Amino acid sequence: MTTIPHASDDSSDQAIWRRLLTLHAHVERRLTQALQRKCGIGLSEFRALECLVQAKDSELRMQDLAEKVGLGQSSVTRLVGRLFSAGLAFRDLCPDDKRGVYAVVTDEGRQRYAAARGTYSEVLSAALNTAGADPALAGTVRSLRSGF
Amino acid sequence: MTTIPHASDDSSDQAIWRRLLTLHAHVERRLTQALQRKCGIGLSEFRALECLVQAKDSELRMQDLAEKVGLGQSSVTRLVGRLFSAGLAFRDLCPDDKRGVYAVVTDEGRQRYAAARGTYSEVLSAALNTAGADPALAGTVRSLRSGF
DNA sequence: CAAAAGCTTGCATGCACATGTATCTTGTTG
DNA sequence: CAACAAGATACATGTGCATGCAAGCTTTTG
């Protein structure tokens, strides 16, 4: 049990996570700035739109959306509020459960997502590449991209 | 140039990043809650202490600390302020450059870090394991842990 | 060469904002 | 009716951006 490379509570998990944090901070910062500058949209808003566009009927329960974007329930309430104020989504009552609320993307929301999608993918790949140039992160990026 | 597997602007970068975000959100949330509950310390504070403890002379320039913890410069000003209020660190003027400020960890800071370190590593490994149990993330976790 | 002007750097502060926790309201279910 | 579930809201907090301020550096000028 001791030398099996299962790496269950391996101390190198810390090293892995440290590199991952650096990578995450770097990439997320770039994405945030690029989307805000070029598309006038926040990163959370973009991801929410993405989830909605890809969802069946372009709608999701608030709760499901929360899990998909990795935010808390209350944050999503306000996130959808922002999308509504921007005309990118609206709320719709769930017919069979009046407590439930659907967030639904609008046509304009779809357009904004389509417009931002290019920027997102370009900046993402570019950020991963520059991170991969850093010797400390090169291995991590390679691992992720190679899939093993 | 077209079929070379350099994966420069490969569209699968998006898939990679989506999994990474889910993993990141999951693990960071667990770490935040565990450290706050069991150790009464924030995640940023813990990471700053870690950087300081491991640094030469237990001190770092604000700027260097900012880069290490992946925060903006102004955020680190307040982060060190919090550490000071908690008695875990203090500021020291740089003798050769009076603009510069060193953040220096105190003995109590070292103790708090030592006390929290166990919780951190345990929760981290546990969170990675539970994430690895999710089929969607298993591959990512394995990739990171195997190093390739 | 010395002093002053102008630019740059390092950190602190004001402000806006997104997020989390706890709580409340409303609707559902036993 | 009691217990529970889904969202919305109140409040506190951490973060980033823009800005301010003081210290260093560079260039100009006498």
UniProtKB/TrEMBL annotation, chains A, B:
Domain of life of the native organism: Bacteria
Matches recorded under SUPFAM superfamilies: Winged helix' DNA-binding domain
Pfam families: MarR
InterPro entries: HTH_MarR-typ (IPR000835), MarR/SlyA-like (IPR039422), WH-like_DNA-bd_sf (IPR036388), WH_DNA-bd_sf (IPR036390)
PROSITE patterns, sorted: HTH_MARR_2 (PS50995)
Record GO biological process: response to stress
Domain HTH marR-type: 13-148
GO molecular function: DNA-binding transcription factor activity
Name used for this protein in its record: MarR family transcriptional regulator
UniProt source species: Streptomyces montanisoli
